[in-house]
Input
Amino acid sequence: MQQVKQTAEYTVFQKKSGRYAVQANAKGKKWLNGDDKVRILVDEQLVKVMTPKAPPAEAPAEEASAAS
Output
């Protein structure tokens, strides 16, 4: 793993696969996961949070007339 950034609170690593790992610098040096990891990576502008697009809304009248 390659160290990307180190702060007083955490260290960010990049794996060979291109994914990121975040380790807390507090006593115990635990690996961060979930929302904490995502928040740190977004703050450091290493990843973007993508939101799913809503499916296109179709008129129910069209479906009813096509079935008849």
